[in-house]
Each structure stands twice: as structure tokens, then as C-alpha cells.
Write a structure and sequence with these properties.
Layout (H helix, E strand, L loop, with lengths): L2 H7 L3 H9 L1 H8 L9 H12 L6 E6 L3 E6 L4 E5 L6 H17 L6 E6 L4 E5 L3 H18 L19 H5 L1
Parallel strand pairs: 3-4
Antiparallel strand pairs: 1-2, 2-3, 4-5
Enzyme class: hydrolase
Protein name: CRISPR-associated exonuclease Cas4
Pfam families: Cas_Cas4
Length: 171
């Protein structure tokens, strides 16, 4: 991907996550429909993120007013705390995107770590050449979904019940 194409396609990590979870949710979010503020599960996740691993030297960084990452002090890790492993693939892609974004800025040598404190699990995430290609494809697809005139049709999934956008999609 050229620098020009990346500059045009770069986005925030939430959109990368939403692309893998539900493209309709991504489309609605990209239209500035923010339903997360009223969702209890999102509030629980935010609280878990704030209260977990307080003993570790974490530094939250907002980069380009676009991505917000947690860095683990001396370990050279980008940290992402998630409520559960239910959407693990989306969480992995989100942290891979952060690593990719940082690499595009010239920051190398970092790895990612997903943490699921309620489950007491950790997973290391590494940016490989294959992962970079998946990220680039995902960025192009996010733009395609955002440019649709209407939200994409999706099938009801069990995860829809706890989604902050459920009411918009299913009434």
C-alpha cells in the first residue's frame, strides 16, 4: 500500500473491529450514530479497561487524533483489554491495525497483547507480512462499506441481542 493510499484509508481501531463483527454496525457508526453511550455492556467493558492491570506502567496514547493505544512501559507491547474472547478475531485485527499504523509511522519492534482479565487470559499478537495484507484488505473494505448508500443487509446473529445497535437493526 502506498503512503498516499494509506493516508486516504487510515481509520480508527473501532471501525476495524466493527468491520469484522458486523458491517451494518460499521456503516451506522461511520454515519456518526453512536449507540455505545447507552449500552450497559460497553460501560462494563470501559470500567474493566480502566480498572484492570493498574499495577503495570501503562501509558495511553492518542495518535493523530485517530487511534488510542495502551503501551506497556518497558515491555514494548501494545495492550488491548477486552471484556471477553467472544469477538477474538475482531480484537486481534484491531490490535494488528494498531501495530500496522505504528509501523507506517516508523515505530517498529512492538508486539501486541490481548488481555481478557475476566478469563485471566493473554494472547500475543505479532504483525506478520500476511497480517499486513489482511489489514490493507480490511481498510479497503471498510471504505467500500462506508461508501454504500444504505446500510448492508445482515442476518440476525446471537451477538445481536447484546449489541448497542440492536434496536436500530431489529426494532
Amino acid at each position: 500500500m502506498t503512503d498516499e493510499e494509506f493516508a486516504e484509508l487510515k481509520t480508527n481501531g473501532i471501525k476495524v473491529n466493527y468491520y469484522l463483527v458486523c458491517q451494518r454496525k460499521l456503516w451506522l457508526y461511520s454515519r456518526d450514530l453512536r449507540m455505545e453511550r447507552t449500552n450497559e455492556r460497553v460501560a462494563l467493558g470501559r470500567l474493566l479497561h480502566e480498572r484492570s492491570y493498574r499495577e503495570q506502567p501503562r501509558h495511553e496514547m492518542l495518535i493523530d487524533n485517530l487511534i488510542k493505544i495502551d503501551l506497556l512501559g518497558s515491555q514494548g507491547k501494545v495492550l488491548e483489554v477486552k471484556y471477553s474472547r467472544r469477538m477474538k478475531e475482531a480484537a486481534q485485527m484491531q490490535i494488528l491495525y494498531y501495530l500496522y499504523y505504528l509501523k507506517r509511522l516508523g515505530v517498529t519492534g512492538l508486539t501486541g497483547e490481548l488481555r481478557f482479565p475476566r478469563e485471566r487470559r493473554r494472547e500475543n499478537v505479532e504483525l506478520t507480512e500476511e497480517a499486513e495484507k489482511r489489514i490493507e484488505h480490511t481498510l479497503r473494505e471498510i471504505r467500500r462499506v462506508e461508501n454504500l448508500a444504505a446500510p448492508p443487509q445482515v442476518d440476525f446473529m446471537p451477538i445481536c441481542r447484546s449489541c448497542s445497535y440492536c434496536e436500530l437493526c431489529w426494532g
